[in-house]
Amino acid sequence: MKNIIKFIVVLELFVTSSCKKSFLDKEPLGVLSSATFSADTTTLGLAVNRLYGSIAWREFRIGQHQYSTKEMCGDDFIVGGNADFKVFQDYSYLTDNYMIERYWGRAFENIHYCNVVIDRTSTLKAPYSAQLFEAQAKYFRAYYNFDLTNVFGDAPLRDHDPVSTAEYNIPKSSHADIIKLVISDLKYAIDHLPTRSQWGTANLGRVTKGTAQGLLSKVYLYEQDYANAKLYAEAVINGGEYSLYSNYRSLFSPDQLYSSENMMPGGFIYNTSLPAGRQYGPYLQYQGLPSLGSNGDIFPSPNLVSSYEKGDPRMSATIFTKTDIIPGFNNNQPVAFPASTNYANKKVIWPYSYWNGGNFNFQSVNPMYLRYADIILIAAEANNELGNISDALKYLEMIRFRARGNKTFAASVAAGENDGAGILPQIITTDKTTLRLAIWHERRIELALEFNRWYDLVRYNKVAGPNGSSGTGYTENLLKTVYGRTNFNYAKFSHFPLPQTFVTSSNGVLKQNSAW
Known about the structure:
This protein is mainly alpha-helical and 516 residues long. The chain is built from 21 helices and 6 strands.
């Protein structure tokens, strides 16, 4: 199979139930019919491919899911005129918010697809194929469950395909129990997934041993288990499967879906044969600018823009401004901006030749769900928290070295960059608190607009006090005092409410989060 992400498979074997009712009081969304499904190698292979189709950006309204639960409560985006997104920035969303409800439905649908594969591999007579299918399905189940517990905290835990109606309606499991399954699934994936080179070029886009190690390092970082975060992040770094792509701007090009840095490709490849409603890339719909044909509802925040160090090349690679042009569009003249912003996300803006039929929304896109730079920064943070300052500085410099254009700070000075002062001075502090804040700043800049910021802010509140030193309250102080978002309350808004429709229809089985 050439480039597995191209396999956007919607199996006719999937019998989809109405999305208007709760999965808790009927068969879950997207149930495979046991009457038509057989656990042979070909059919299971197609079911595994369906998991990759789910992670790609073609899924209906997945853009809403990502922005609402991973970015809009944070500080990297601002909202234009879209009231549906604005409620997340002022923390006025309610338990019946439709974007959160859609996220919930899609998350459990995708977990179901994983369980369908996992539950049937035991009957497959080809042991290697069974382990390979199960490893991929367990990786994706871990990914979705990790995401689910980050969004909601406690949530129903579905670790197999329901076999009786009594299992359709289940209570929440604790965050700890969900994380326990996530870790178990990822360790299985690590033991049974091939490396990138073992998969070979014909299978570029598949998750790998390194992908599973990288996600597990992130799980441990979020759990403040820094020893294991360091262990698995450094396993990726020392394993040699992945490397920093040489050019930060080109990294996000639709031409680089399978670059050396992309550990979990989520690319959407535009295809005219898709149904009309599926041709739009939801990743694009709310970004860009109205003058490009985008909805143009969300934009990089002025605070993010002002956070870049002087001369940092990543700013011009990430932030599209009023003086920028799009080659081939608008006679190569600057494009119109709405009054609400001076900036757009340049990571999704490419030359006009990339726009199929001249439509900004009809593009292949290259979002990454996990990339190597993230893992290096996890290694830096974990080492700093463990007191291994020299290693933390080493990993931080790897990121800044690439950001400078693969040169040292001394070479930047010698080249006369930033008026001869050089760009991105090498961080040399040995103070744990100062270095912690430097690493967090680097995460914000390096991973800007990539759906990491809100989860980072949530966990930072448990790691440090308002000034970054030991304690708690960092994020609450940042949002309320620095940004003036007085509605924010960490105990309530660090997790989203369970959709009220599902709580009500569970007849008392599913309990709303206590803060709501």
